[in-house]
Design goal:
single chain; alpha+beta; 11 helices
Length: 446
């Protein structure tokens, strides 16, 4: 069993990368905001959210395992899912609250049952693994019911970090898309969730929408034999989270408006529509839970036109943890986005390398998704153009992993110009892997 000691509470920092110079009449300001949390100490003078008493009572995890009838085809799939969930249970730290949910067209408490969460120790981990051995496949798939049960169980614990891990092998056929969306809306902001699709009979957009709504990761495990290693990594990552519900707070002065806010590394995630108002001219954009890590955000603001030589603060970015009473705990880190109007054409027309890089990465993700949709619709010319542009962008930005995945779907004639041919036959797992991982980005080359 892996034995993970409780990590230190991280300290946050914010760095802003931008070209602040605008030409006369220029109004659009772009900046890449790098947020980094590093282990140790307190949060730059602020303390982390209070943690309940106990050996490590700051986290609760719900493991949702697909037990629908399709998990029996082949029979090794269910066995691998049981083994993977057992490996994840072994990775739980002592003191963490947890539950295992079996998901079909209804959600069933596998362990501990009775609407409760167990507290991890050697005994409860063993009991959970014994309960997993009794899991069998049968029934349909209604993922919204799994998420709602996970929410009920996780909310019963007075903890800072609430996290779900969800595994499915099929399409969500026993509830409507509206039911799933309603469940996601109800759970958003209450817990984070990583989602995995095993095999190739599930719907990529369903799994990625779950992870997106609940600020977690999504991936494919095409070969069920890889589940245990993947579940262990997911749980290790969950065990590293120490501060929950962190929001990127963006303040703008009078006359300035937000065009968009999006996460651009390690994945592209649109946050603009998730803004909640946070007082005069300020809004909070959710980022989920943090451990020892770094992420990049693209902030684009529109400023009022100004004369040459003038300068202004276009936005102030800080990190907060909203509190139930409507207040917010400031995590002690902020960055400033500036605008300076100049007649120096060289200064005002140069694009900051970080901004240029992540603009390309966002276009890359969009080109892949649009190209695959066009391919499925039978639009060969449109798909070839979009996927060719994706190959060009992947090569130019050094995104070797995405370039490799693209090469399984198209024959690359010339990467630099984006000249490609669609492959006549593409393995379903390769196409699904490309679609699922299309939003993964690489950081700008230093």
């Amino acid at each position: 069993m892996a034995n993970f000691s409780k990590p230190s509470v991280p300290r946050f920092s914010v760095d802003v990368y931008q070209n602040e110079y605008l030409p006369e009449g220029g109004r659009e300001v772009n900046a890449i905001v790098t947020v980094t949390s590093t282990g140790g100490g307190t949060l730059a003078g602020a303390t982390a959210a209070p943690r309940p008493a106990g050996p490590d009572a700051g986290a609760a995890v719900a493991l949702m395992v697909d037990c629908s009838g399709s998990m029996d085809y082949p029979p090794t799939k269910m066995r691998n899912a049981r083994d993977a969930t057992a490996a994840a249970v072994d990775t739980l730290r002592d003191g963490v609250h947890f539950a295992v949910i079996g998901g079909t067209h209804v959600a069933k408490e596998v362990y501990p049952g009775g609407g409760r969460l167990a507290v991890a120790d050697a005994g409860t981990r063993e009991q959970a693994k014994q309960a997993l051995r009794r899991l069998s496949a049968g029934g349909g798939t209604a993922i919204g019911t799994w998420l709602r049960l996970a929410d009920r169980l996780l909310s019963s614990a007075d903890v800072a970090i609430r996290h779900g891990i969800l595994l499915t092998d099929g399409r969500n056929e026993h509830e409507s898309p509206e039911d799933l969306k309603a469940a996601l809306d109800a759970c958003a902001g209450r817990f984070t969730c990583d989602a995995r699709g095993v095999g190739t009979d599930w719907e990529v957009k369903e799994v990625t929408s779950i992870a997106s709504a609940l600020l977690g990761s999504a991936d494919i495990v095409a070969d069920p034999a890889g589940l245990a290693a993947d579940f262990t990594r997911m749980m290790e990552n969950a065990m590293g989270k120490e501060v929950a519900d962190v929001a990127l707070r963006v303040w703008t002065p009078v006359g300035t408006s937000i065009r968009f806010v999006k996460q651009v590394a390690p994945t592209v995630e649109e946050l603009t529509g998730r803004r909640t108002e946070a007082g005069p001219r300020a809004g909070d954009y959710p980022t989920g839970s943090w451990g020892d890590e770094s992420r990049d955000y693209h902030v684009c603001v529109e400023v009022p036109a100004a004369g040459l030589g003038q300068e202004m603060l276009a936005a102030r970015v800080s990190l907060v943890v909203p509190q139930p009473d409507g207040s917010a705990q400031n995590l002690g880190a902020q960055g400033l986005v500036r605008a300076v109007w100049t007649d120096d054409m060289t200064a005002s027309t140069s694009i900051n390398p970080q901004v240029a890089h992540y603009t390309g990465q966002a276009e890359l993700a969009q080109a892949i998704q649009e190209g695959l949709d066009l391919r499925k619709a039978g639009d060969i010319d449109g798909a070839t153009a979009k996927l060719g542009r994706a190959v060009q962008l992947a090569g130019a930005s050094g995104n070797a992993d995405t370039a490799k995945l693209l090469a399984e779907v198209v024959d690359v004639v010339d990467a630099a110009t984006g000249t490609v041919r669609l492959k006549a036959k593409v393995a379903e797992a390769d196409e699904m892997t490309l679609e699922t991982r299309s939003t993964k980005t690489v950081r700008v080359k230093k």
